């Protein structure tokens, strides 16, 4: 009986072992990808250039949209989750050109293992201004929701949006190159965008997968219903609903403007290809060597011909465009960009400490106006003009000079107050500041028949002190 029981146990154990072995073998690809995701997972704050993964296998798969036969490109979720998703939509008057342009992005996604989503028609057909912008927002929102419902370790970290009228020129530059470094100072940056001159451009941007982004996109979608009159004014003036959302105080401190020529270069700033003349070459003297992306905005004339010309050039002379990261200016410019912003943030912290020290040491009850204005100007430069290194550096220097001048003025003002003390009151005291004992003060009053004028400095209220410091600083600035 005991032998029979043992035989049964061995059979059951062997059967269970074989089942586990079969399941492990059958799902080995999924398990290996899952382990790879675990090894490469981060804190979802983005990756710096040093964390760039190697060339990945093709993760892209195609599926048919049963509604109208349009191709929708999406990755197979079973193959793991790289940290970047890239996406776009295409329809309209250049629909015959868009597939070739978007194919350049698909190749880039295959090169670096990015999941690529290309949607071929509108999601909604509402008759309202900027309907194409709302379709884009709905699409990004759906991707964001899809990622946020996953466990954090399996989510993508960033979504890169690009309009269908962009061409990915250099597949050797990964998107991670432009993400914020792993530094606590930059952990709050959730969006990277550019300006065309002074105008916000949303043809291509980076947005972090997080609740902040979902809230910001949802606010932009709800804008026409929340503030219809303001929306009409914005739409008729050519403004962007995304800009409206990201310019709000709650959101603006989490977005960063990067130099446009890095990844949103506009072709319209260069000379256009001519027809049949001997100079039938597009002069791109201002295009950075090895630039990753070229954008052909709607306001550009003959942009269809320009897109076709660049696609032809890319196909015929790929070595002119596909250049290794080390052979471009990206690494130095990007290092300088983040180093300067770190210096700016540290200067603001230094100024706050200097203000606290000045208040404690010199009894200044409020930050001088000019110092506060210099701090606000530097903060505004970080928010709105981070792409302009010269302006940011100017604001850093201005704040340092203003703060040092304020501290010196506070020191001089305190020294001047001690001059009101008579000589006999300053003797035996530290810098003429300490008062005599109560007994000595009473004795002095009895001898002199009462308090004498000048036995103590006249009391200046807080407002008078601030006026003195601000007035001197203003005079120095003028």
Summarize the structure in words.
- With 478 residues, the chain is α/β, with parallel strands linked by helices.
- It has 2 domains: 35-273 and 285-328, Spore Coat Polysaccharide Biosynthesis Protein SpsA, Chain A; 333-420 and 457-477, no CATH class.
- It has 16 helices and 11 strands.
- It has a 6-stranded mixed beta sheet with strand order 4-3-5-8-7-9, with helices on both faces. A 3-stranded mixed beta sheet has the order 6-11-10.
Summarize the helices and strands and which ones pair or pack.
Blueprint: H1 2-26, H2 28-40, E1 60-64, E2 71-75, E3 84-89, H3 98-112, E4 115-119, H4 131-148, E5 158-162, E6 166-168, E7 191-196, E8 199-208, H5 211-226, H6 228-236, H7 241-246, H8 249-252, E9 255-257, H9 260-263, E10 265-266, E11 293-295, H10 303-316, H11 330-362, H12 369-384, H13 389-418, H14 423-426, H15 438-448, H16 462-477
Parallel strand pairs: 3-4, 3-5, 7-9, 10-11
Antiparallel strand pairs: 1-2, 5-8, 6-11, 7-8
Helix pairs in contact: 4-5, 5-6, 11-12, 11-13, 12-13, 13-16
